[in-house]
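## tool: complex_structure
## caller: assistant
## args:
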Amino acid sequence: MTHSVSFRVGPVGFRIVSDWREPVRQLQQLYGAYPAPIAGVATATARIEAARPWRRWLRPAVHIRGDYIIPDALPLPLSQGLLSAEMAMNLQVALGWRQHLLLHASAVEQGGRAIIMVGASGSGKSTLAAMLGEGDWRLLGDEFAMLGLDDGLLAPFPRLVSLKNESIAEMAARVSVDRLGPLIIGTPKGSIRHLVPRADAIARMDEPARPALLLFPGFGEQAGLRAVAPSEAFMRLTDSSTNYVALGEPAFVALTRLVRDVPAVAIGYASGAQGVAAVEALWAEVGG
Amino acid sequence: MATPPMPPPTWVAAAPDRLVSQQLDVLSAVFDRASGQTHLLAEPLPQILAVLNNAPGTSLDVANRLSISFDIEESDSLAQRISECLDELAALGLVVRVISSQMATSGDSEITVKQESGVLSLKQSKTETL
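## result:
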């Protein structure tokens, strides 16, 4: 017997299929406020299957599958089924989505204008977006920023925020427990806990925003600001995109326009609160 | 028997409609429609590409054409630097080196020049016979 759940996040209709009930039940709960896919049609399907048929009962481990697969992906223990589902969803979008330029970035909006935060794992972009998203900002997304190829607007993609390690306690102190998923420990990235975005982020997921600031956060780096040249921003954004090469010329046009039109700044900060204060100060300067 | 000296190589730039360029700051981003690759070029590479646009030439021609728009002094080191730049552009597939016998075809037709890096289609209304 297989279990499944469908829901829509921004432009993407997801369908998650699993051999097990538990990850699907957790997804149903966490994505409970999200709408169904348009016309009931999922554009990305992810499967969480038994690594070997008999492993469904004996030492359960899960494989991530879907329209796109990574052949050698390590099976994860079933206790990390929810994480597998989230990874599978990321993978389907990262490899399959062609309607927007995908940047591995978080994004927040205020007054129709957006900050795109780009950085490697550990740069603090998820935590910053989550903290801003609990304040005067609307969370547009934690994992992918979707840049429109023609209009240059950011399409919201407010997936669950993936909180890691220290930021789990920081956010758990600010939000009600029904917005938090189970604590998943011992993952390749340490401890992970998913956060459901605030209700306004989900309700307004079809409202795009105009990019106004490119931010390169550096958690743990020396406090301060540094202007980033358009060519450096361009290089870092092509690096952070999963579909820049596949999209070809339209991506080149969209990305060169972005880095020419929008100021780019790198910030260093030592704590979440310091990061938020730096972003707010910077936003006031760029005319937020 | 004396062998005649080798003529200097002539350089041909990729057809202008093959490249999309955007100057970002000191670097220019160039998208190559033929290869699907994006290049970030520092000065004077975009300027060299521009002066070879629709007009193949030797490195000396390039130096002369650059000196029309830019305040540069001709010297051996300049010629050397331009040769290096042309080699860099060739490595990216944005220019090709053509020896004179291959340039002997003239007329209004499309010519194809075979190079180690592959085949580059050139659309030119007129090619000079060297």
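## assistant note: Residues 156 and 232 of chain A are 25 Å apart (CA to CA). The interface with chain B takes residues 229-231, 234-235, 238, 244-245, 248-249, 252-253, 256, 259-260 of chain A (CB under 8 Å). Handing back to user.
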